[in-house]
Request: fold
Amino acid sequence: QVQLVESGGGLVQAGGSLRLSCAASGRAFSTYAMGWFRQAPGKEREFVAAITWNGGSTYYADSVKGRFTISRDNAKSTVYLQMNSLKPEDTAVYCCAAYRTPYSASAHTATQVSWYNYWGQGTQVTVSS
Reply:
């Protein structure tokens, strides 16, 4: 069993920044890829960013490329999402997720909801215009 707890969400003006954190417990965090997803009201959950188990590769949705940065600290069992130049369309509940198998994550599977089997409760990010 894995527990994921997000923090760092809030209300920010357009152009501002936020840093989300996701603390993990219950499994060998350092051997699994991690991802961030978001869901806006009335929309499906969508991929935001992912990072491989050792941080060697990162993947981003086109909509956040150049603005968001995913990173991880395996010693602290924590994954981060630095969000800069925020836009009103970034408003959503942001959830972190743990990949279902150790060490593996490809550029394709890392973006797919079905490849993650543990999810946090989410943290609300609201960007005002």
